[in-house]
Amino acid sequence: MDFILDGNELGRTTVVLAHGAGAPMDTPWMTATAEHLAKQGMRVARFEFSYMAARRSGGSKRPPAKAETYIPEYLAALESLSCTGPLIIGGKSMGGRVASLVAQDLFDAGAVRGLLCLGFPFHPPAKPEVHRGDHFQHMTCPALICQGTRDPFGSREEVLGYSVSPAVALSWLEDGDHDLKPRKRITGLGLDDHLAMVAERVTDWAATI
């Protein structure tokens, strides 16, 4: 398994970040997020699912399979990653969803400290009836979900109506979309400002778990 590592120092809390459905592990978004987390003292490990890695070598560009399909690959990545400090698993959008499906079992086994989801896909755009977050209702694994307030995969108005356990913390990025990006004309802020905020919130949250 190939990883991109930021903040690769012994003993740091490691955050494993899997990419979203349509973009690889080395996009500007993923790179900036990893760099901000590293500046906050985290070690960040990025990896790719097989379908995305295949695209680099001219493979099929078909959409990914269902998130559950990639559970074995996520577990294989964790198995191959050397980690000497606390471990937090997660990812962007689909990557975070895959991590969320294995987090509870790994937490119960003492293998991970928590779950980090950046822009969780609670439902497909314009299909709020297709709910993908039921497992958060009974989760005891500490989780942090950083979500844009106008995310079409789950806005603040929608998500605040869902039932989640006390172990799940929701952190809202005002006017953020699915990439957590705000509209500068409205907020005076850009994407990098929000990613820096995310890194600070993740650091504060990680210190409590």
Structural features, described:
This protein is an alpha/beta fold. The chain has a single domain, classed as Rossmann fold (3-Layer(aba) Sandwich). The protein has helices at residues 28-39, 50-56, 71-80, 94-108, 156-159, 184-187, 191-206; strands at residues 4-6, 14-18, 43-47, 87-92, 114-118, 143-148, 168-173. The protein has a 7-stranded mixed sheet with strand order 1-3-2-4-5-6-7, with helices on both faces. Helix 4 (94-108) links the parallel strand 4 (87-92) and strand 5. Helix 1 packs across helix 7 (191-206). The longest helix is centred in the C-terminal third of the chain and has 16 residues, at 191-206. It is globular. It starts with a strand and ends with a helix. The mean pLDDT is 96.
Primary descriptors:
209 residues, Rossmann fold, alpha/beta, 33% helix, 7-stranded mixed beta sheet
Sequence-ordered SSE layout with sheet pairings:
Blueprint: E1 4-6, E2 14-18, H1 28-39, E3 43-47, H2 50-56, H3 71-80, E4 87-92, H4 94-108, E5 114-118, E6 143-148, H5 156-159, E7 168-173, H6 184-187, H7 191-206
